[in-house]
Specification:
Elements (H helix, E strand, L loop, with lengths): L16 E4 L3 E7 L2 E6 L4 E2 L2 E2 L7 H19 L7 E3 L8 H7 L3 E5 L2 E2 L2 E6 L4 H10 L1 E2 L2 E2 L15 E2 L2 E2 L12 H8 L1 H23 L3 E13 L4 E5 L8 E5 L15 H9 L14 H19 L14
Helix pairs in contact: 1-7, 4-5
């Protein structure tokens, strides 16, 4: 598989490293600003593969920037943490080419310890739970639904815990989210997550993509007491994208996300293997790359390399 792959963001000589996640490294720029660097690492079933997807980090960053521009104009009161795609001056000239368009300077927030998952269609773990006892995250769902069917009452909010690196997230009832973050913030997170999903689902459906489900993350601006949308937004890493023209109730549609990788791991008996112990074959890398690129183009109308209104040239 040809193409540039950045697995490790080595900026420690330029900026202090605050944290490293499955895909992103976080660096301190100043007291109120952090640098979020998206590598080409890819994870599935809470395990990071030993190889990556070429330039995936650029695609995810630019798609997040795209949504960061659209959503605040569509959802009343919504703010995102994005400040700029420009690199901070501390990044040395010899490193800048590696990190342009895969890095975001963002507002430093106090992250809420939950993931705000919104589901519009019953699939994946939600379908398995529904088959077992008629519920999704403890929420009773009306009987008789078929796999991949839209929830009759509209999208549902099904938060999860936010596990530490190497641990597994746990689906929880919305009432449990109130216990974790407090009732006031839980209500606002749910309100914003559902509003973002509804707008995005309509937006992408008009462009040939169904958002079956997606994960949002929020943080608190402690100075203003505002709940702010943070991290990646509506990307193939954080969402389940289906082609609208292939959608059939009762079937599992093909997808524009890392489901291709998940299916391969499942078929090979490689789910939940220790991080760094599984290498994707070239075919899986190529197919995943193609799916991500197709999703980006359908949503934005352009290839990520030519999305000049989002990219920075510094």
């Amino acid at each position: 598989m040809k193409g540039q792959v950045l697995l490790n963001a080595e900026l420690d000589a330029c900026l202090p490293l605050l944290a490293q996640g499955k895909v992103r490294n976080i660096y301190q720029v100043n007291d109120g600003t952090i640098l979020l660097v998206t590598t080409d690492r890819i994870s599935a079933f809470d395990s990071i593969m030993s190889n990556g997807i070429p330039n995936k980090g650029c695609l995810l960053t630019l798609l997040t920037a795209y949504w960061s521009r659209l959503l605040p104009a569509a959802v009343p009161g919504l703010r995102t943490h994005l400040i700029t795609l420009d690199l901070p001056k501390e990044i040395s000239p010899s490193l800048r080419d590696q990190f342009i368009n895969r890095s975001m300077q963002v507002q430093k927030l106090a992250p809420f310890k939950i993931e705000a998952i919104v589901r519009g269609y019953i699939t994946g773990s939600a379908w398995k739970s529904y088959q077992a006892d008629g519920t999704v995250c403890g929420i009773k769902i009306e009987p008789g639904l078929k796999e991949s069917e839209a929830f009759p009452g509209g999208p549902i909010y099904t938060p999860s815990t936010k596990a530490e690196l190497g641990a597994h997230d746990e689906n929880i009832h919305p009432d449990k989210a109130k216990e974790i973050v407090g009732a006031k913030y839980a209500a606002r997170i749910e309100e914003l997550a559902l509003a973002c999903y509804r707008y995005a689902a309509d937006y992408t459906l008009a462009r040939g993509i169904i958002i079956a489900d997606t994960k949002f993350e929020f943080g608190l601006d402690v100075e203003t007491d505002e709940v702010v949308l943070m991290d990646e937004i509506l990307t193939p890493d954080s969402s389940r994208f289906w082609p609208a023209d292939a959608y059939r109730v009762g079937e599992t549609p093909p997808s524009f996300d890392k489901q291709y990788l998940r299916d391969w791991l499942t078929s090979q008996g490689l789910k939940h293997k220790p991080t760094g112990t599984v290498e994707m074959p070239d075919e899986i890398v190529t197919k995943t790359d193609e799916k991500y690129r197709e999703a980006f183009k359908k949503i934005t109308g352009a290839d990520w390399e030519t999305q000049t209104d989002l990219k920075t040239e510094q």
